[in-house]
Amino acid sequence: MDTPNRTQKKLTLMVLAAGIGSRYGGIKQIDGFGPNGETIMDYSLFDAIRSGFTKVVFIVRDEILDIVKEKFGPRLKGKVEVEYVVQTLDKLIPPQFKNPERAKPWGTGHAMLCAREVINEPFVVINADDFYGRDSFASIADFFSKDTTGAHAMVGYTLKNVLSEHGSVSRGVGATDKDGNLTSVVERTTIVVENGKIISKEKDGDLELSPEAPTSMNFWGFHPSIFPLTDSMFQDFLKNNHQNIKAEFFIPLIANGMIQQNKGKIKVLGGGNIWFGVTYKEDKEAVSARIKELIKKGQYPEKLW
């Protein structure tokens, strides 16, 4: 594995691996996709380490904590510092907002807050079951290697490159200002391609989207100064949504809140050149084939660890 000279500054990778993956019908975070049973997460960890990351924080649910420790602990030993954080339904939830009927996790923003105690340095948040490619990690590591006190970032993906041939997708579609800072990110839950156009199906009718729109695939970089704002926004969210057992506190809500309140800027970075992920069991074959292709091109070794 390459040893980066980019920076000796501390940089943490937070891997969101607590999702339930009900549509996949199994624990996709630890399912094997590479030639030696490597998970998608393995490739992200490999890319992060060769881009200069110094710590990994796994956000898991209790049922998979031991499996994740057993699988990834030995692989990462001596390469990076490792922490495991369990996201539970009750963690950081004041008693008056607890709902016994709730079974769904509180979302990516809550997962991020759960790790607050173990993070004091800039950190990058990714999904465990998305393949982001080496360039995205190199791009964000480069961003944080500079003096970025209080700065935040998002690796932007081009909307036309992250759609599905098999049906509608949900994507965080962004807009930027002239300096390349995010001005908003809107979660569009039903995006389809119709007659060569990219359409978001909205309550008020169809909305045509730009194929070049910068899109969030949940690859965020934050300075730890984000935590007090996130905590305050989460408390407000709980007040308004604790009775809705399906409500989730997503990272784009935090990003928009920060921008609207003028509490910080989020630079949209390049590097989003490749992305693929798994939602359904049927996606497994295609993902394995794409990994095989990248190995053939020499982008990854046949055996990662």
TrEMBL record:
<feature type="domain" description="Nucleotidyl transferase">
    <location>
        <begin position="37"/>
        <end position="187"/>
    </location>
</feature>
<dbReference type="InterPro" id="IPR005835">
    <property type="entry name" value="NTP_transferase_dom"/>
</dbReference>
<protein>
    <submittedName>
        <fullName>Nucleotidyltransferase</fullName>
    </submittedName>
</protein>
<dbReference type="Pfam" id="PF00483">
    <property type="entry name" value="NTP_transferase"/>
</dbReference>
<dbReference type="InterPro" id="IPR029044">
    <property type="entry name" value="Nucleotide-diphossugar_trans"/>
</dbReference>
